[in-house]
Amino acid sequence: MAKLKGEVSKEKNHWIHSHRAELSSVVLILIFSVAVIIWNRGIQDQYEHYNNTNITYEKGIVTETGNDELIVDETNPDRYLGMQTAKIKLLSGKYKGETVETENYLTAANNIYVKPGTRVIVSQDEPEDTAPYFVIYNYYRSPAIYGIILVFFFFMILIGGKKGIRALLGLGFTLFTIVMWMIPMIYLGHSPVVMAVLTVVMTTACALVLLNGTGRKTMAAICGTASGVILVGVIFAVFAAVLHISGYNTDETEFMVLISKNTHLQISQVLFAGVLIASLGAVMDVGMSIASALYEVHAVSPELGRGELFRSGLNIGKDMIGTMSNTLILAFTGSGLSTLLVLTGYGIKYHQLVSSDFLAIEIGQGLSGTIAVILTVPLTSAAASVLYKAKRKC
């Protein structure tokens, strides 16, 4: 009986310690978030140099159209080409409530066909000493986007319950950190690779602590994920050196060069940083899966030694490697599908394709991420086998 009470007391102390640590983590996250928001407001002018204050984008609804100059697109009967006139009632901004008239040009690349009742975003340009003019920028998509996000939230919470809510909070913190902290820091001249590594470590720790608390399982997953993502950077750096690719070989190079003239953007490292962020999800998935599986194995068979736990992790990971490798390769390939179609359609030659920046970047990104996913299995297994067999102090 005394032994049973001792075990209960030990478990209770561990529960209290874990929840205190989790609460402390949440408080630190909130403090960091508030500090970043305040800091970001003070430095935006240092990197936002190309925001034209004369142009605003306002909501509007089409009240009337003239389609006399439209023709049916021969290659796609569901689309129109040409020009249509449109009267639009503005629903926001300086001229809210007023009706403006504009010419809406429909081309193969820019095809925003409107009719009465269509909600749009209007580009409102007000140059100095000139009457304002209005152009249809695009469809008003905000309600649909918010609706899709709510559907995602609904299923996340419906299936995941409290874990789903925790996962959403972790995802929100990850996006917040990337947009509000990492990107501004890169513009201010800090190394994109260093900022990406710090972002990965912070967001990984936050997401996993929110999801599973501060136990050994979480620590094993954090160790495996962080080391796996850092390996992505190391491997891609080697591939990039061999393939002669950097941030200057991307499609956005010209825009980044213009921006870098008024900021401290280090263009060459941007590609590396992107690979680190892109690989985080897959590496975290493998790290958490291995850590969770070994945690259950250890709970059922506590007599297993570190070596046996490690080998169990490797065996479990073998089934994940194939599917997660496909996930990364297909993700990078899918993002470049349009480019592949264009290159194929223009009859690109073999050596031309193999030596292109596009293929070099896709192969470098895809394979470095896949190799890192593979190596995350033994790394997480090693971390879990050490942590799970360590004696608990509380």
TrEMBL record:
Keywords noted in UniProt: Membrane, Transmembrane, Transmembrane helix
Membrane-spanning parts: 21-39, 144-161, 168-187, 193-211, 218-245, 265-284, 328-348, 368-388
Q: Which InterPro entries match?
A: YibE_F
Protein name stated in the entry:
Putative membrane protein
Its source organism is Faecalicatena orotica
